[in-house]
From TrEMBL:
GO molecular function: phosphatase activity
Region listing for Disordered, in residue ranges: 233-279
Entries under SMART domains matching the protein: PGAM (SM00855)
InterPro entries with a match to the protein in the record: His_Pase_superF_clade-1, His_PPase_superfam, PG/BPGM_mutase_AS, PGM_Phosphatase
Record's protein name: Putative phosphoglycerate mutase
Presence of the UniProt keyword Cytoplasm in the record: no
Residue sites binding substrate per the record: 8-15, 58
One GO location term (cellular component): cytoplasm
Native source species: Cereibacter changlensis
Keywords, sorted A to Z: Glycolysis, Isomerase
Pfam families: His_Phos_1
Amino acid sequence: MKRLLLVRHGESVWNATRRLQGQADIPLSERGQDQVRALAPLVARLAPDLVLTSDLQRARQSATLLGHPKARLQPLLREISVGDWTGESIDALDPGLYQGWREGSHVPEGGESWAAFSARTGRAVDEAQAEGQATVLMVCHGGVIRALLDRLAGLAPRHILPVGPARLTVLGFRNGLARLEALNVTPGGLSLDAPDSTPTAWPCVLQPAQARRSLISCCSTRIARASRSAAGVSTFATGDPSMQPEQAGIPPRDASAGQRLQPPRAANTHPAELGLPGV
């Protein structure tokens, strides 16, 4: 496998009301269906050779709307179980416990631990790699994407932007190492929000008056630092084109390729316009 495309399902009925669903089998909302339809042309241009989907309804619906009604069901891609929190309003939960859960340190009563969840989703990738296909699409859940970024690219949950509905994240594989090529991409560009996020769910605190460019730079820098600290995992350039890599604390060159890394760009036309290297 040379490239892994990760798409979170569109907004579900419970997403719309900020209720935790975990493994509850909740369908897409009408808005969620529209979100996935809008993303479909971009995913199609990336030409996946193998399509896998979580067996939960919201993911299966999303796979169909992406143009893959016969996507193979992969139960290992189910969302993390939230135990007694299933169906609870996010706003009614203790903020500290919810934040701890998002960071992988708190397990709700009857829920799945982050370690078990990470191992389960990792097995799905191992099985996909054994298929020998170049580009694999997984239609799954926000938690699954965060777990795979942690397991494959060394990005701890607390350093990952909330994964929004119907968003595309791309991992490239080179010499056995994973590289983050695109994160939270929509047909209109980069997304920095998600319906299940909270004001404290991202450790980068900014004043409202600060520019959007500063937010992108801050988030990219934090992700880069987390990536750089993981042994054997290559880093990627800051999302702010005006910032030099050295300013963001990023090595100026990719040791494996000997070339300066380029920031990924969001687009809805061709893989090259996403900043993705050739497969």
